[in-house]
Structures
1.
Amino acid sequence: MSLMPLLAEMSGSFHVGLAAIGSAIGVGLVGAKAAEATARNPGASTQIMVISIILAALAEGITFFAIFLAK
Amino acid sequence: MRLLQYWTMLCLLLGMSAMDLSAADSDHGVAEVTSTTELHALASGESHDQAHGEGEHHGLPPSAVPVFHLGPLVITNSMVATILVAAVIIFAAQRATRTVRAVPIGGQNFFEWLVEGLFGFLEGIMGAELVKKTFWFFASLFLFILATNWFGLIPGIGTIGWETSDGHFEPWLRGAQADLNMTSAMAVAFFVLWTVWALQANGVKGLYNHIFGNKGGGAGFMKWFLIAIFFFVGILEVVSILFRPVSLSFRLFGNVFAGENILESMLMIKGLGWIIPLPFYFLELLVGLIQAMVFMLLTAVFTLLICQHHDEDHGEAH
């Protein structure tokens, strides 16, 4: 069974899935680095939390663009 | 003066969500999201209700459902929840501050803790001067979003309703932020205030310099080169500024709407009953808090970025 007809049969919101993968990776990187930064400098944990929430929200926003804006 | 600010805030919030007269067809873009589920439902031969764009799971309809009409205004179930939550907040705040004591107890103590905590938090981000000017807006946003998010999680909000003539179930109440009109009303209100604050802090010329101005300095040929580059950077900046209300409103709507959908889908799983949605309830409690904080933080940081003084000013100050 060849792959191409199988792929051609697939349909749906691919762009949303791809955007979700991308933003999940982005949020994961933000979280990993935020945990690392907090471990290095626990005194700055409030600032790190603020920055990481903002950046995670920005990375996450791409998914919503994909869901609602792209057709 | 403060009362005036609160009323402006309230009118902006409530009025703008009411301005979208026909909630049912204003959400075309969102309604089309379900087109794939619709196709799927059609393909699997299920009967399907076009009017509400309901998916195969009989999940949450993408737009809020009208409950009653007030003259030309359509009052949707999300708006009922909005007004209810706002009334509860206002009543609780009024009651807590009716008799103000030097040593606070009870409700006054709670509200003082809440407001002072928020003030300190925002002060750490925005600085002492700007926070005094803008605290009323960000604190109201945070409290309102948090209250509506958690209000939407109370059992019975999406499940107590009436049956329409065509045998459909419609809830009386729906999470207020699960309506794109509400979130975009808040985002647009912020956008207007952002413009006002930016103009107050910078003036028209200052605002232009802030966005398009040459931040690189340089001399001779390089100076003109940098001016051209920073002009195009400014155009990108304008695009990103114009997209802020869109991303703010979609982020909040998407999170809350998806959360309510998850809870409904998990309830559909047979066998274990209420145990399956339980972990998701804790997730949604967390998401409700985080999204309220994200909305407040993002708006606060956007305001800070435009109202911050330039580096030259900082150099003089030091």
2.
Amino acid sequence: MQYDVAVIGAGVCGAMITRELSKLDLNLVMLEKCNDIAMGTSKANSAIVHAGFDAENGSLKAKLNVQGASLMAYYCNKLSVPYKNIGSLVVAYSWDDMQTLETLFERGFNNGVPNMEIISQEQLREMEPYISEEAIGALWAPTAGVVSPYELAIAATENAIMNGARVKRNSGVFDIEYKNDMFFLSTASGVIKAKYVINCAGVFADQIAKMIGDESFKIIPRKGEYYLLDKTEKKMVNHVLFHCPSAMGKGILITPTAHGNVLMGPTAIDLDFDSKLDVDTTIEGLDKVKSDVRNVIPQLTTRNAITSFAGLRAHIAGDNSDFIIAQSKANERFVNVAGIESPGLTAAPAIARYVGEIFRKMAPEYQKKEQFISRRPAPIRVNELSKEEREELIKKDSRYGKIICRCEGITEGEIIDAIKAPCGARDVDGVKRRTRAGMGRCQGGFCGSKVVEILSRELDIPMNQVTKFGNRSKIVFNKTK
Amino acid sequence: MKRELVCVSCPLGCPLSVELGENGDVLSVTGNTCPRGKKYAEDECTNPVRMLTSTVKVNGGKLPVVPVKTSAPIPKGKMFDCMKVINNEVVDAPIKIGDVIICNICDTGVDIIATNEV
Amino acid sequence: MLKYDLAVIGGGPAGMAAALKARECGVAKIIILERAETLGGILEQCIHTGFGLHYFGEELSGPEYAHRFIEQVEKTDIDVKVDTMVIDILPGNVVVATNNTDGLLEINATAIILAMGCRERPRGALDIPGSRASGIMTAGTAQKYVNIDGYMPGKKIVILGSGDIGLIMARRMTLEGAKVEMVCELMPYSGGLTRNIVQCLDDLGIPLKLSCTVIKTHGIERLEGVTIANVDEHRKPIPGTEQFVECDTLLLSVGLIPENELTRMAGIIIDPVTNGAIVDEYRQTSRPGVFACGNVLQVHDLVDYVTQESQIAGEGAAKYIQSKSKSRSRSGKCIHVKAQNGVRYVVPQNINCTTDGDVKIYFRVTDIFKNAKIVVTAGDKVLYSKKKKKLAPGEMESVPIKLEDIKKIDKQDIIVRVEA
């Protein structure tokens, strides 16, 4: 199959860029090595919209962060993605920390972060009643927030498909050949031809770039471990709480999530170059999160933890700490979008626009489409409906009356929608990320087997071919009889 | 010969010591606190029996399998032989509780009966 | 809005027994709301025998035990709605439920019985580090795959936790052809019944490793193994004792949690130890007219006891409904029942001074005791004292308190404790 553009990697950047490029009249494909969208860094991160005071003044990171933070509400609205503009607090515990807040304020101001404020201990305690008594002040940034990162990626993908883009899953690229102005991408699902390539391969972006002879950067997988707590803990924290960066490191953050859970983490451990699949949690990592949390909110424990997990950030090796978003020096039809670690999620909408500009300069031959559908309709969320709406819906389709996931109140109808959606769920985790079935406190203890049954029925495959997240991650083996 | 057992007659779980004769007959039981312990030790050493439960494949039912049990305890040593027979059996729906699925399994004189409806 | 005298939430053994008892006591309009496709609750997948020895005097399988109650319910005009999930309890005892035939249902009930049962503690609550591979599930989930869906969830299995479901599944999986490598138990003793240890593990040569836990899971896609380690007296892994065990499945049988989300939503006070509602002798919660029984109130070891407890709640609800105008419940004073030395919790936690019969107090001990005495006092007076050869956390105990003793109590708490 021949395309004008191939985007490699269906993380939040790949998906948002694919959506951006689907505004143009071209043949577009997004290639993903996993069984679903957002299976790498995009599904396991802090899910934060950063205000933008961390990045160095004048960096691409700073520019795209601040732009991204201001664009996020618009995109989440267009794409019907959970987003809450709750603001962030960098909490100070010492005189030195207060000095650091001044530095952050100034950096943020220069980066164009609006409405920041350094607040007193009393103001802080009023905003966060459970905060440690040791906390003496904070930097308040009202433009920060929380977003559901994998839902953003999924929604952007669906919207791109609505606008004609193709998505190929289980299509990891293992070789690239360039001849006669054409890239030949060898993938797990056959050879794909494309005139332009956008490399959004996350922690693997260096390996993809190397396939065209670009060895200008290397990516270190930097592991971060997290705890996700039950919604019962949501009263404990109201804003994104950062620990003041110090000589001891950046520390962990505690935040409500867009869905009302509490998330805490991450640690930061650099792994070897060849450990890009290692998302194991560790005793040391989880202990570190637990002990760091006690310093911020002493009463917050992991007693009501729903799960713990680890994710990898794509950290560029060496001194360069900025995003790499540019045409490759090895081939100018190949654009690297690499080193997108924090605040990559925040920046994603701005990155998509930025890459769109690069692309239009690089390939002016493609025109804007007459009709671009900018809105992705919201999936039905039964428990967000009014009583009347809910009754009406069940009357139309009785499957919205059958609750499968008890903890989150998710119905069979919603699960089927998630499977039937463009680029719909093909595995249990895919259903979970799209609908939240199995995301609650029983962790799929009751609904797990029901979801397997529904996937088996809707995808017309036997139960023992249903997987947790593709490949060999099957749930059950042979029939007993 | 001596055999050590844990009595399962009640939650106390007495450790039982059984003295066995040359042809396996029980000479003495110690460690028990009540007569039930002695009886358990004697049965367990001479003729240990177990209830066996499993499932049998069903054709044409709402569920693919029906749960079954032995109508009475069977010799412990025959459990896996009985499982082979149970695994090869297929029945047609409808099935009621108490239906005999397999008669006199492995010549034990015990039947396999359904314990639920399908 | 539908109008009922009694709405029972949950159609497992607890809900059915409570509804039947209420009917027997003369309650006219009763409805049972069950979220699964059939009545019977978790018993439907518990195909092993051992149920009913106390209540029926015979050894039944789970479905058989359930069926005895299902048959009785079917003989009455108790309304049953299956596939129906209760999503809220509004003020004024209005139950909101949803299903695919009625849409949203609102039921106004004079009394409500909560009988939602319990769920298994999942991996997330355990803090086992390692990978997110598939093949890690609770023993109950595996039980459903094997016994209901007819699929094997694995071939080479390690079980963490020696609760009864874990032990039962060790035998089930072995009989169905899987290799169960071992059962690991964090505590120095098993939480399961001796009978299950003998018949589910010893019979099949499956090792039970006490003071041992899983400290890491391996495998990126499907589970490929676990690292186990011995633990010290503080339940911390002992360095140097780590051992890799190859397996494709890790089953968790590490405790049950009462499903009290609705109870909490209804603003009912929860006992932090039982994780169930605080109740009086008729299992009435802090909200008048709302009762709780079975595993949603406290996790039981035997379904027979669930049935007994639910009958108390059924009778209590009937009395409440019949004397509602007289406002029987909270007008009188309450005697508090409290757990002390060696006793982890008691149920009921309150006894109304105006109660009309003897009251049985159920409790669990904190540790294994041998030749210890159970003592119940009120002030200086000893209400009950009995020596027991063995007390274990896994076995629920009960003590009877006579009505005449209750009547004599003035303001003091009833204290239940263990004397070594």
3.
Amino acid sequence: MRALTPFVMVIALVLLAFAGIKTANLHFLFGVVIPYAALGTFIIGVVYRVLNWGSSPVPFRIPTTCGQEKSLPWIKQNKIDNPSSSLGVIMRMAFEVLLFRSLFRNMKTELKSGKVVYGSEKWLWVAGLAFHWSFLIILIRHFRCFIENVPFVFKTIEGLDSFLQIGVPLFYITEATSGVLMRYFYKVHIVGVKILTMGLISFNPDPKILNEIGTIFYVHLFLISVLLAYFPFSKLMHMGGVFLSPTRNLANNNRMERHTNPWDYPVEVHTYEEYENDFRDKMKKAGIPVEKE
Amino acid sequence: MYDGGKIIIGLIIFLALLTFPFYYNIGKVNAKPEPKIDTPEIQKLPVGERKCVESKEFMRGGHMQLLNEWRDSVVRDDKRIYVNSQGKKHNMSLQNECIRCHSNKKDFCDKCHNYMAVKPYCWTCHIEPKEKKS
């Protein structure tokens, strides 16, 4: 049921784009205005949220430690899972961002005949890794629509992704739905698409090309625009958030460096010496020993 | 802001990557590809009969799939006759049928393929049409 609502929403968005192009003929709105607005929302939103997070105080080191911390010289430190230096932190973050190391430790807890049993649960990690890397490759492949004289790197990635050489156009190992429909079934005027995208990124879109591109392209473009605009308001912000995880990006050097809380205010203290000065006479009368006579 | 410098550097790198196409293309001529269909063979045809095997719109989107079907049909089933949507018969052959009219690979095929950074593997088996170097 929880998957149903978003699914219906996506269908509604598809129909909206369809209606906008097919019946209302709003090519300029869907082809130029909405993409610009979406990209603007994305950039401003992401920057705002990252700065907002950045302004929250992190006075102390709170890394979660997943290995032996730096200790006596003959005890071997786990430099990646319990880093004490910037290099270790960089290594740890690289593993986290690129390979989802935390998720690799995902465990399943079960009760088996009255006993608690912990089992390895790698499926989430494997699927997550496949999903995110596919996403990245798809994103990079799209650059061919935005760059003239596509650089070598992008062609290489495309070549690797299609190395199975199945079908024409070549089947990509990483694929997503509305793009698949365009690439294989409802053909669009792909050169027209590039003329539009190149126009968009040089802030000089060509209005004549808008009517020549198939409706399915506008559905694709609208969906991605909605995704971009939705991004800063949603959990998709984990893209920026993963870099700002204080339990991962701080070195565990609590015992080597003194971290002071910057908003500490001077606390009024009343020392024992002062206390004795105040009450010396009374203490003597009551027979309580004092340090100064 | 704690580690503000690092966060801002991170944001700048992110924005630089994101807007890469915007500044990468600055100052470059954004020319549309215009494939030429003025080869001598096409010029010879009377104006009304200058038609490809299927409509322009179909060929623009689906030529690669058509060629793929032709290849399978010829190589695997030995069927060489293609009947188009008009009922007209064509010889399924890249070198003898397509290239007969479109003998200008550089000004026809390559125009869009290069623009879109597509590299079809036609010419790893087929012989490229001989063209005068221009």
4.
Amino acid sequence: MNLNAVKTIYVHEMRRFQRTIMQSLVSPVLSTSLYFVVFGAAIGSRIDQVEGVSYGAFIVPGLIMLSVMTQATSNASFGIYFPKFTGTIYELLSAPVSFLEIVAGYVGAAATKALFIGIIILLTAFFFIDIQIAHPFAMLALLVLTCISFSLLGFIIGIWAGNFEQLQLIPLLVITPLVFLGGSFYSITMLPPVWQTITLFNPVVYLISGFRWSFFGVADVSIGMSMLAITVFTTACLAFIWWIFRTGWRIRQ
Amino acid sequence: MTAIVSVKNLRKSYAGGFEALKSVNLEIAEGEILALLGPNGAGKTTLISTICGITSPTSGTVTVGGHDTQKEYRAARAMIGLVPQEISLEPFETVRASVQFSRGLFGKPRDDGKVDDILAQLSLDDKKDRKIMTLSGGMKRRVLIAKALAHEPRVLFLDEPSAGVDVELRKDMWAVVAGLKASGVTIILTTHYIEEAEAIADRVGIIAKGEILLIQNKAELMAQMGKKQLRIDLVAPAAEVPAALAKYALHRAPDGQSLTYTYDTKGPRTGITTLLNDLQNAGLQMKDLQTQQSSLEDIFVGLVKEE
């Protein structure tokens, strides 16, 4: 195990985070705070409770997930795409490192950044909205797992992308709609029955539902299903990355 | 000869069917400087990339220090440093951070003193806190070399180190290479510049169309394969080469003022005496004679053309 390499990649990526702190941290925190103000305080006061929770509080878990998922994906995809773009990937390929070590470094750093952002948004939420966390450990565990799994997804996107446009494409066209339609702003029980069934094919539903359960003890789907879904998703991403390094898909000829 | 790098029946064909390497065999001795010469697209970079792990071989084996580059890739790669042909660096990193990154990636613990020594060796000490994007092209190439040396490799690959480099830097680089050789590092470089191979290599390999055509001690190569040319300046220009002299395959200068005869020094007879006699019999008067030893460049061009 080349632990020095893992540490080196991790530190290198965290330094990049430091250099771009405005863009990496301030902007997602600021835009999520605006959601809290607009949907939580302003519009939320005119909306009835959802599943026994005030609307302002109801959207907090979903909004944290929205930020964490998009940030984890974009950080990880950029992290591995940039060496491809500059050509410095030659160094990774010629170094005595295994795929697990490369992934641990890049995904570890991207997940840390996303976790950091998620926690800051949560702390910000306390300023605007009155919330309690029913299951804090489960909340933290789900948050960490989501950070890791979406960083893995981002890593795959970064390897796949051939240019900057493609790098933005998946987050924009796939992840954002899935997150918005995954019950960030509403309970899926509010949808017509047909749409409720369709929504169950959206993996994000399970994550947001589980995360909301850790706050309020209520969920659209059972917490067991949520945990299963996130485990399957993480395993699938890892398996795909293992295959990428085995075959050299898009990185090694 | 103890081979530090051993390449056996190495083949690489790409998805489109293009065969970049056709069964390459190569043994590189510890401590030598080997220059690989070849035209563009000959397979030089593919060969280096395959040894270093950037490209996967289609078949064949490579061992570095006795370690198979596929099965024991960690041990093999830890011994190798690679300076790529393209300048590939992260623009926003500082020189020092970039070199430290390379050292860590190869599994070595952080050692600022060692990194500073390497930077000093490449005359980069006053640039170490500068961002890479603020450096000139030549300086960036030095950073690439520093990164390749960061983990103290035993074998160093330099892929076209002189491409786009000014004379001064090239000389500096040769000095660095000489210093590394003195410390026992094995160096493999690819180049277009024959003068570079001539100046620093112990052995020269010539590669074209994915095959190593020849690999030989530089001095032997030049002595054995060296052709000489005899230029005969004439008193009066010759309108054409006389028919009696056709067997010598003389080359007539456009103005007819001189004839050039190419001969092989390794043959038992060079044919010079009979040529001079025949010239006289043909009524051509000689004003001057001069001979010229062919350079590595001529040998190279000759070999690649024959293919």
